[in-house]
Specification:
The protein has about 300 residues and is an alpha/beta fold. It contains 14 helices and eight strands. It folds into two domains: about 1-130 and about 200-305, Malonyl-Coenzyme A Acyl Carrier Protein, domain 2 (3-Layer(aba) Sandwich); about 135-190, Alpha-Beta Plaits, CATH 3.30.70.250.
Length: about 300
Amino acid sequence: MTRAAWLFPGQGSQYVGMGKDLYDAYPQARAIFDRAQAIVDFDLKAVCFEGPADKISQTRYSQPAIFVTSIAALEVFKAHSHFPRYAPAFAAGLSLGEATALVAAGAIGYEDGVRFVMQRGRFMEEAAAQNPGMMAAVLGTDLSVVEKVCAETGAEVGNLNAPGQIVISGHLKKVEDAIEGLRAAGAKRVIPLDVSGAFHSSCMDPACERIAKALASVPIAAPGVPVVSNLTADVEASPEDIRGNLVRQMNHRTLWEDSVRMMIGEGIRVFFELGPGKVLKGLLKKIDAEAQCITLGTVEDFNELERS
């Protein structure tokens, strides 16, 4: 048996048609989608399977859509013949994916997870409208330089994803000033991101206040699989710490590179990216080119696993 880690994607991994082939081919996936459809306040299956792209990219729709597709992929994996070969030593997810990881690890029930993610997406979208902002990827610059420019402009570091890939976030004018400052400081590239809000910054403060109240009534247990938090890049087992981290990661930087390095330091060499897209596989290659990442988000992915 090989010790492995489950990875769950965050917002930005969505695409029109995601989960459709899983839903058609596997009863496990069909049950996950149908259970969520009975809870959410929109036509989840239509958004995932048919789009359109501008709708599935909206935060209030993309977050529950990615969450449900990821849990569906996990349930298909659990029924797969190769599943017993891999012992889940850790679970982790990028931003939104951390909520998915906690459900996968048994800390939060599936239905409660659907409700939480639906509220999270709606609250973050409304906070983005209240506090207009933006995000930008900074390539080829040291963190110390980025932090210096952010301190001067009022922008904030939002994501530390992989070596040489830092994302800044915050109020529109502050990030625009930071982009100019970083280019002047010699950044290789600074790329404004096509996102609907300044996530992982103080622009999300109103969403944090609302989600904290919503989470107060959500039962949370100690995870059955150790979950690595974006906020601390360490395993968090206390239900109260988990509750607090789910709130704070919305307006604080995510430590994805450090989280992955923590798991690699614990001997993990095989990672499964469960859900739509291959964003986390791409980041893993930049963090450690020798680590293996198996993506499981489509029927073809599972067929390929069967052939391996």
